[in-house]
Amino acid sequence: MTKRENHVSGAPQRNFYGRIKGKSLHKAQQRYMAEDLDALKPTGVTWEDNPDRIQTDPTDWFPNDHDVWLEVGFGGGEHMVHQAALNPDVNIVGCEPYINGVAMLLGKIRTAEVKNVVVHPGDARDMMDVLPPESISRAFLLYPDPWPKSRHHRRRFVTQDHLVPLARCLKPGAIFRIATDIEDYVRQAIEEVLANGSFEWLAEGADDWRKPWGDWISTRYELKAIRENRTPHYLTFRKL
After folding, report:
1. Domains of the chain
2. What is the mean pLDDT of residues 38-57?
3. What is the Cα–Cα distance from 101 to 109, expressed in whole angstroms?
4. Given the residues 49, 67, 145, 161, the one annotated as active site
């Protein structure tokens, strides 16, 4: 994985995600970004804010000591807001470098009026750098960038470069969920997560990874996959 330093911030360029901006934001989305984002950003995560990478307790970002869940790459925010509304007694941290997705999430937060979320508009690895050990109770990796070309597989999130810091952040017994429609991503995820040595796979039969979780909501990426005749897969691991 590329470890060059960014010439602006000093942050390593890890590059497990693709583009960070798409089409121009709508006026309403521009307003959400201007009015809402700063209040929802967690402190002590960015390299500019925390260049020494000092550990930051996620309970400092919320007005309570509830369990904290982490969503790596929340896309358009459908799942994150759904879980926040469904679990008001849980705090949810979402990371997403794609600015258009951040803007979409902010609109959904306004509509749902959820209060138990913080939003890091950047690299999830920057978040994992500063999270204390065993501080996260659940993690989600939902329809991540598949990096389909073989030479790009090292950029997938399911490599030890990402799984090692994720495992460090998870509490014993924490659940790690992965959803993807790419069969080769399923293969690599199972191989790499189990090779990490910190997780057990909770599947008891083939149908377990074909059936969505009981609290699942289809994201726009999943709906697109289904329209294009790709099969969703749902993997559940537990931190040992």
Report:
1. 27-239 (3.40.50.150)
2. 95
3. 12
4. 145
Whether residue 67 lies in the annotated active site: no
For the CA atoms of 156, 157, 159, 164, the dihedral, rounded to the nearest 10 degrees, stands at 160
Whether pLDDT at 5 is above 70: no
Look up the pTM and report it: 0.90
Sign of the C-alpha dihedral computed for residues 114, 120, 126 and 131 taken in this order: negative
Q: What is the separation, in whole angstroms, between the first and last Cα of the chain?
A: 27
pLDDT digit string, tens, across residues 184-198: 999 999 999 999 999
| 125: nearest Cα among 22, 49, 46, 59 | 46
For the segment 2-22, the average pLDDT, to the nearest whole number, is 50
